[in-house]
Amino acid sequence: IDVAKDRVGAMEKTNFTAVYAMLPGNLTVVNNLSVFGRIYGVKNLKARIDEVLKEFDLEKFRDTKSGALSSGEQTRVCLAKAFLNKPKLLLL
Q1: pLDDT (tens digit, 9 = 90+) per residue, 35-67?
Q2: pTM
Q3: Closest of 2, 17, 21, 4 to residue 92, by C-alpha
Q4: Which residues contact residue 54 at a Cβ distance below 8 angstroms, ignoring those fewer than 6 apart?
Q5: DSSP label at residue 88
Q6: What is the Cα gyration radius of the chain?
């Protein structure tokens, strides 16, 4: 995909996570996933969020602000965000 010509198409198939790129701490886990899900063009976003919350054992933190989580829990949220759009290319 030519990123210059089809940025949205590229974003739908790519994602990343890094230890230095934490999610906004003032948003809840679900709010963070919702924002990034819209950025990445995730279809059936609510259902997909529920799936990644379960996959990464984050269901109990869904309404917790990300900044209140331990570093390990924040890492799992970042990984859930990275897998949210089922990327073809995942940069870690």
Answers
A1: 999 988 899 999 999 999 999 999 999 999 999
A2: 0.85
A3: 17
A4: none
A5: S
A6: 13
